[in-house]
TrEMBL record:
Domain of life: Bacteria
Keywords noted in UniProt: Membrane, Transmembrane, Transmembrane helix
NCBIfam families associated with the record: EIID-AGA
Residue spans crossing the bilayer: 132-158, 178-198, 261-278, 284-303
InterPro entries from the UniProt entry: GatZ_KbaZ_carbometab (IPR050303), PTS_IID_man (IPR004704)
A Pfam family that the UniProt record links to this protein: EIID-AGA
Protein name: PTS system IID component, Man family
Keyword Secreted: no
Organism: Ligilactobacillus ruminis
Amino acid sequence: MAEKKIALDKRDRLAVCWRSTFIQGSWNYERMQNGGWCYAMIPAIKKLYKTKEDRASALKRHMEFFNTHPYLASPILGVTLALEEDRANGAAIDDTAVQGVKVGMMGPLAGVGDPVFWYTVRPMLGSVGASLALGGNVLGPILFFVLWNIIRWAFMWYTQEFGYRAGSHITDDMSGGMLQYVTSLASIMGMFVLGALIERWVSIKFTPVVSKTTLSDGAYINWDKLPHGAAGIKEALTEQANGLALDSTKVTTLQNNLDQLIPGLMALLLTFLCMWLLKKKVSPIVIIIGIFVVGIVFHVIGLM
């Protein structure tokens, strides 16, 4: 007689979705949203795994680094639920495959969430609520609160369900290597996106002055000859837009020379250094504290 398959029902998935609302409740600088992610997965882990050892292993697996837009974590949760369900039923899915799919999806989706929710949906709803509130209508803040939560909750639930259904198909053809292919593709995409964002996220500026050059007349804004008031401000802005410098002396710093060589070079080197230290099993907390200390010392001595 075949062993009965363990399956997550709608109630289990709803519990996971509800808990994912608090995914940033234990946000930390070492592994970011890992605590909230693991908390969201607990109902599924309890349902899928029966022994203490299996549950502990699953909890440890989901305490690894995770960080994305809090609402876009839902489709990743759905795919992960499907992978865990198939793993509990005997599929050859290891920890690396689960973590690889998570890491591969969280990078691209993080870039989608901000423009959709923070820069579009929320400002639109906020403007409607604010206009009503300014007119003395108490429904303004209430409407904003209700509509925002309906939209975000509906999005989280349906995208989690979509991810759950898609994740089930990923593991249908284990012999064909479909899971390995998706894992590799997701990991490559995630690393590519994270690598492209280094220049945006990591900022290093060296302040030592390399040279000072006195500009000729007409190459800079002569502030003494500008008219007073708004007319002077307008003329200064016009001259700056036409390419005139703000000061008679052009100061070139070490950072200017580095940017002319390769923009973002030092940020990239710092990232490689952190990766090398992590590979050497150096604690992320030690690395963070070290960066703070070095940054403060370099600032005090005038290097940064």
